[in-house]
Structures are given as C-alpha cells and as structure tokens.
Predict the structure.
Amino acid sequence: MMMIPNLIVMPMQIQNPVEVVYITDASGAIYRVWMLTPGEASVSRPR
C-alpha cells in the first residue's frame, strides 16, 4: 500500500469536488478534515 504524506491544502488548490471525512469539536465547529483518495472513498463506512 502506497502511503501519501499528510499535506495542508488551501481551498483554492482544490479544483474538483472531493469526498471528505471530518470531525467536529464540542461546539460543533469543524475540527479536522481528511480528503479521501478514490480508493478510500469507495469503501463503505458508518455515517
């Protein structure tokens, strides 16, 4: 399995819609976001 390094991506760098997973903090604000690769996005996961 090829590992892709963690990167900081600025919003203007995103050209196309991407699948993401995110978590929120106690107040409901978005805390962390992960952009998924096509392979990761195809895996079923709980919502």
Notes: The chain is about 10% helix and 25% strand. The longest helix spans residues 38-41.
